[in-house]
Structures are given as C-alpha cells and as structure tokens.
Amino acid sequence: MNQRNNHRLVLFPLPFQGHMNPMLQLGRILYTRGFSITILHTNFNAPDPSSHPHFAFRSIANGLDRSEASTLDIPRLVSLLNARCASPFEECLREMMPSPGVDAVPVACLISDQLFSFMCGVAERLKVRALVLRTGGAASLYVYTILPVLKEKGYVPTDGSRSEEAVKEFPPLLVRDIPVVDSQKPEMMFRLFDNLVKVVKSSTGVIFNTFEELEHPALTSLREVLSVPVFPIGPFHKCCVTSSSSSLLAEDRSCISWLDEQPLKSVIYVSFGSSAAVSNAEILEIALGLADSQQPFLLVVRPGSVGDPEWPEKSPSHFLKALEGRGKIVKWAPQVEVLAHPAVGAFWTHNGWNSTVESISEGVPMLCMPCFADQGVNARYVSDVWGVGVHLNGGLERENIARAIKRVLVEREGEETRQRALVLKEKASGCLTPGGSSYRGLDGLVNHILRCDSEDRLSALEVSVNLCN
Ligand code: UDX
After folding, report:
1. Backbone dihedral region of 265: left (phi > 0), alpha (psi from -120 to 50 degrees) or beta?
2. Is-contact 334 237, C-beta < 8 A?
3. How far is the CA of 386 from the centre of ligand 1 (A)?
4. Residue 312, preceding peptide bond in cis (omega within 30° of 0)
C-alpha cells in the first residue's frame, strides 16, 4: 500500500538488537496501514537507513564514550542512555513539531521503547500522544508489576538457595525465573523495572509483539492493572513479509545453503541472542555436547559472546576434528529465515522474547537456557504453560546437552512437545488473518491513533478560536 494517510508516527527504539528489531517491524506494519514513519534513533547502534527506504531517519547524539557504550551492565547502560538522551531527544522532537520542515506530514503520535523513562514527560511538554512498545511478553511485564510484592515476600534478591522454590503468587514460576539482571547495583535494576511499569502506565497505550491466544491470562491481568489500552498485534515479523534486515551485525548467509543440504527437521539451531555471553569452558562443553548428539547443528557465536575472541579459529585441532562435518558455526545468522527452514528441527535458545516468538511462529520446539531479565519467565511459559519446549536442566555438561538435544529433536519422549509446537504455530498464523485477534488488534491500534490525533487537532483548533475571540 503506497497511499499515505497524512499522519506521521515517530518511533524511538532502544539501541539494542532485541529492541531495534520489533520497533522496525512495527514501523513496517504501520507503514502498510498508511502512516508515514520517522525513526528517531541514537547514533550508538544506529539502524541502516538503506535497509528501510520507506522510512525517514533522524539521529540524536547519545553522548556515550567508548567504554560506557561497551559495558555489559545493561541497567547501567540503560540508565546512562536515559540521562544522556533526554535533552537531545526533546530538542529533536520539538524541531519536528511546530515547523515540520523535511517531515512535511504532521506528527500524530510518538511510539517509544518502554525503557526510555523520560519519554512521557517530553510527550506531555510537547503535547504529543505517546504510545509504548513492549518488546518483551505480557507475562513478564505482569511480573514486573508485582516485583514489589515479590521483593516484600523475600523471593528477591536471592542468594540462590531458594531458586527451585515455587512462587505461590504466580504459578508456575519458580524463584529462579524471576527477572534479574547482572548489575553492580541491584537497586538500579529494580528502579529500571519500576520505571518501565510507570512509563507504560502513563502512556496512551501499550503495543505488544504477542497474540491473545498465547498470553490471554497475562493480557487480561495487565488490562486491569495498567488502565491503559493494550494492543497485542504480533507476531510482528509475520505481519509483513520483507527481505529487509535490521541486524546490527552482518548476517552470514552461507548457513542457508548449508541448511539446504541437511535432512528435514534434523538440525538443532543454537543462538543465545544479542547480549548473553558464555565462558570458554562453557562454549567448549556446548560444542562437544552438540557433536555428541550426533545431530547436525548450526551454532551462532557472536563476536564478544565468548571469553576467547579467537574461538573457534584458534582452538586445538583435536577439538575442531570432533566438530568436523557435524555442524556449522557462524558469527550471526539470518535467524528468522533459519527458523523457517525445513531442515531446522529444534532451537536451543536463551529465550529472549523475539527468539521465543520467532520459534513459536515456525512451530520449532525449544531447548531453553534462560540467562537474564525476562528470559526466565519466557522459558517457564515455553516449558510449563505452552509445552513447546524443555529446560536444559542438570548443567552445561556435554552428556547432559547431548541427551537434551536428542530428546527435543528426535526421541519419542519429545513427540508431544513437537506436536504442540505445530498446533501453536497454526494459532500464531491464524491470529493475523482477517478477523483474527491480532488483525483486529491492529485495526484497534490504528483507530486509536487516528482518534487521539483528531481529538488533539480539534482541541488545538478550539484553543486558537478562543484566542481569536
Ligand atoms: C533481550 C531480551 O532478552 C529480550 O527478551 C528482550 O525483550 C529484548 O532484549 P536479545 O538477547 O536481543 O533480547 O534476544 P531476542 O529478544 O531473542 O532478540 C534477538 C534478535 O536477534 C532476534 O530477533 C533474532 O532473530 C535476532 N538474531 C539473533 C539474528 O538475527 N541472528 C542471530 O544470529 C541471532
């Protein structure tokens, strides 16, 4: 659809891969509904405009120096981004408001990542409506809303001694599933989640990359506690099929031709997303466990995700020999395409929300190894609620890994899991067809934006008429 509706949306993604992807996908979805799209982004981890020729792009300085930008302490990085981006963001948005200039279409609404805590204040000052994109799931957001209670009950912070205990207030969660992030200051992490909930509550509405059939109970609870409209319109990446990529790293497409050579549903795809890391000893066990499983594997080893930057190139030859012919190792894969490939039979994942939704959408069962933040909640839902995956329990040891892979991929024990994954895939695609829940959710979102904007224009008109009288 090329006809524009004379409404511009300004989208403001957090500059991390797992946040950038869904925001750009959302931009494409709303573009197909006639909106003009401007991506306002930091100059750190900036998206590539040439991959998105239909969008306008505006960059703001984030003021991070090299060492700040490379910290692995996510709460600290988010807090720095909030501190440094607030003023340039407001300035840039202000420039776009009164005199549209190059962005000739007036701004109808701002859609920002949930982790920018200054966003609602800016929107209020500039009198623009602000929606929030929740890049994670509904269940994990609900857990964030009850974190103060979980803290009060003593579940968090935890020293690990209660990790297998059930959280009575939120079955089927175990204490180890409660969101935590490695941070030098745990209080900073709690503040981060607390701010996230506040931002959502003070927005004009929250958009989810999920679907009603997947997370109905959590969405219902959120509708009660948030008191703002909730729009589950996912899975985003299935809404508009496009070849444009929003990868911040170069995708190694040679893995697709390698997959073409593998038997149907035989490959275990392994990726731990854009920020989880493993030690040298762990990656060794992972690789040997993969080799021991006797199944072909595709392993993503992101630069910086393993202690040894020269892994596996400089690994001992006997080790490389053990892997020879069994699998392929790449630095970054075109994941959505990989998961849709007929040769892929299972996904060993950290259960970042995007990876989880992408796997569900293709009916690929999961081997879950959550690392931090919302991933524990996502993984618990995958294994215990939707039954489309299993946890890698019992430690990161080669025998254990090989056993778990065989279970989820080939053995009879995993058959029901594989069947449920196929059923859930059907639901994920059904909700996007006309009349489906996400299709209706998108209609609702579009109407919400247009209605809010016409109310704003009307009240602006009334103000100017009153001033003239
Ligand atoms: C983190 C959180 O864990 C996640 O739950 C939160 O909502 C966003 O931030 P991340 O580690 O980036 O996420 O994982 P995930 O949410 O799964 O996103 C990773 C994205 O990178 C996915 O869209 C995936 O398709 C893509 N990817 C990953 C690739 O394109 N190639 C790869 O090789 C690996």
Report:
1. left
2. no
3. 20
4. yes
